[in-house]
């Protein structure tokens, strides 16, 4: 009966909660002896007053957050032969020797156990006791651990007999979680994860979860814990402009969690790029180390194709990014921008489930991404493509606004704004308006011809709705139309509206400096440059 129960895949699971706690450390029900050699902790991992290792120093790089542990099957004749185990399941299976464990043993502990019960819960022990090697005939197992790991190891051994844990504080559960991963006790991994998920999340525990060893975080049982920690930190620092100092003080796992979020509230993707560089310069003052961490961990957090061309030019000259890598990133981003909008959406959808160097999904930007085509000859001209989702337009009612990123026409800095306008007419109370907000210095007035257009569902081609001119002589200026399409808001937003193609409103603004003012404008630009040089 014991053999049949032990071979079941459900041992330790809610479907088969077998309780052998009566047999734990009982010589009558044991066929092996566990000799635990307990050594002193290194100074950096001394337990705090609650009996847990220092949270700031906890990195679980080895056993239970410390350096290493080793496991040996010893006979009295072979009392010096050990099998060394370090760094997770791969090392456990490799059984690599190490000479680094030279701390003296301060005390020993003897535990009687059943090889059958341990093998039923742990593939590691199952292989150890059934591989036909000389060690399987030996009766004593020797395990050397650090003092602060003793309680966690006893918790794990008790779990394999009783399917429950007595200590349920976050730090205690995390230590057991790490040991359970090393000994491949998946039932204990699931149990610890479920208990941790029920506990309140805070800043410190979220960082502890994300700082677990990679082998632990890759486990399906632990993934919900990792996802919860990521979501907590992303929500905590959603507005990075408001919490910039706190974000810059986050450890690597924290900054990755925050900047990976689609819901990050930033003006543009350039703000994310700027935060990444500030964080890297603060935490990695040495250039080579900084370039390496930027390349391997941080660049993938930046959605370069959603940055405007002017910002991408800055990437090319950034000293913190390897020049060849910067060139490749900018080239790939420009290729993406050159694709038609429907092709961009297809590539974005394809990338959601892939692992690439950067993401294409738009965040909750305060200034929405645009595509800009600029010409210097035969006239100074900018053509701007501004796409809005129908759900975004729905949220504009009754008086909302949505802004584009900035673009330039000569020295003018411009952005587009789509807006739900209150007209105050009895049968025509609201409409969709589109405006150009212009700012910047100028040395000579210039006349600009602007054209506002959108694609229609019928032809899928751009149709010009408004054509006008404005004279720009410096300062701030607003031009546009309160009723872009000449229809009430209800008709604009209705199902079957001719202005949306697959629930996307495709807008285009074309701005051209008139030819008879080009020379004056260029002359003004030259005068301004000379004045700057003289200054």
Shape, please? elongated
Radius of gyration: 32 Å
* Strand residues, percent: 15-25%
Number of domains: 3
Poorly predicted sequence stretches spanning 5 or more consecutive residues: 1-13, 47-57, 61-101, 132-136, 353-357
- Fill in the CATH topology of the largest domain: Potassium Channel Kv1.1, Chain A
* CATH architectural type of the largest domain: 2-Layer Sandwich
Query: Helical residue percent?
Result: 25-40%
State the total count of DSSP E strands: 16
Mean pLDDT, rounded to whole units?
Answer: 81
CATH class of the largest domain: Alpha Beta
Give me the secondary-structure category. Answer: alpha+beta
Give me the CATH superfamily of the largest domain: Potassium Channel Kv1.1, Chain A
Largest beta-sheet characterization: 6 strands, mixed
User: How many DSSP H or I helices?
Assistant: 20
How far apart the termini lie comes to: 93 Å
Pfam families: BACK (PF07707), BTB (PF00651)
Pathway: Protein modification; protein ubiquitination
Function: May act as a substrate-specific adapter of an E3 ubiquitin-protein ligase complex (CUL3-RBX1-BTB) which mediates the ubiquitination and subsequent proteasomal degradation of target proteins.
Protein name: BTB/POZ domain-containing protein POB1
């Amino acid at each position: 009966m014991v053999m049949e129960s032990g071979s079941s895949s459900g041992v330790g699971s809610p479907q088969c909660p077998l309780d052998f706690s009566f047999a734990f450390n009982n010589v009558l029900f044991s066929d092996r002896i566990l000799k635990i050699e307990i050594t002193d902790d290194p100074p950096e991992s001394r337990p705090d007053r609650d009996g847990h290792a220092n949270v700031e120093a906890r990195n679980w790089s080895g056993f239970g957050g410390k350096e290493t542990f080793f496991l040996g099957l010893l006979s009295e004749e072979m009392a010096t032969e050990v099998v060394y185990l370090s760094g997770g399941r791969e090392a456990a299976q490799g059984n690599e020797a190490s000479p680094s464990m030279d701390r003296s043993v301060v005390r020993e502990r003897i535990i009687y156990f059943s090889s059958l019960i341990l093998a039923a819960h742990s593939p590691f022990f199952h292989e150890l006791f059934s591989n036909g090697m000389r060690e399987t005939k030996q009766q004593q197992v020797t395990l050397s651990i650090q003092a602060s790991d003793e309680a966690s190891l006893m918790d794990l051994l008790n779990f394999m007999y009783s399917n429950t844990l007595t200590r349920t504080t976050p730090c205690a559960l995390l230590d057991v979680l790490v040991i359970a991963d090393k000994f491949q006790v998946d039932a204990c991994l699931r149990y610890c994860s479920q208990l941790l998920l029920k506990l309140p999340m805070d800043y410190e525990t979220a960082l502890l979860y994300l700082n677990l060893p990679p082998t632990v975080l890759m486990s399906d049982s632990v993934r919900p814990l990792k996802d919860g920690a990521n979501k907590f930190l992303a929500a905590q620092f959603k507005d990075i402009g408001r919490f910039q100092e706190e974000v810059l003080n986050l450890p690597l796992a924290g900054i990755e969690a925050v900047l990976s979020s689609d819901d990050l509230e930033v003006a543009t993707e350039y703000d994310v790029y700027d935060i990444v560089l500030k964080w890297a310069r603060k935490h990695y003052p040495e250039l080579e180390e900084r370039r390496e961490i930027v390349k391997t961990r941080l660049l993938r957090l930046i959605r370069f194709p959603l940055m405007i061309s002017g910002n991408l030019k800055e990437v090319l000259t950034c000293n913190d990014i390897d020049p060849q890598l910067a060139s490749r990133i900018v080239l790939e981003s420009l290729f993406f921008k050159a694709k038609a909008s429907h092709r961009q959406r297809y590539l974005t959808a394809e990338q959601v489930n892939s692992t690439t160097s950067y993401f294409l999904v738009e965040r909750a930007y305060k200034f929405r991404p645009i595509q800009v085509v600029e010409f210097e000859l035969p006239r100074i001209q900018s053509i701007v493509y501004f796409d809005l989702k129908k759900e975004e337009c729905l949220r504009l009612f009754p008086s909302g606004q949505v802004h584009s990123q900035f673009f330039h026409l000569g020295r003018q800095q411009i952005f587009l704004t789509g807006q739900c306008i209150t007209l105050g007419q009895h049968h025509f109370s609201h409409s969709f308006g589109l405006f150009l907000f212009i700012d910047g210095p100028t040395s000579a007035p210039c006349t600009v011809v602007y054209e506002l257009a959108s694609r229609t569902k019928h032809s899928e081609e751009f149709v010009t709705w408004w054509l006008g001119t404005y004279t720009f002589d410096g300062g701030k200026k607003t031009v546009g139309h309160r009723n872009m399409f000449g229809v009430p808001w209800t008709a604009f937003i209705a199902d079957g509206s001719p202005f949306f193609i697959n629930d996307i409103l495709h807008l285009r603004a074309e701005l051209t400096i008139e030819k008879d003012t080009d020379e004056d404008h260029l002359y003004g630009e030259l005068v301004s440059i000379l004045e700057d040089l003289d200054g």
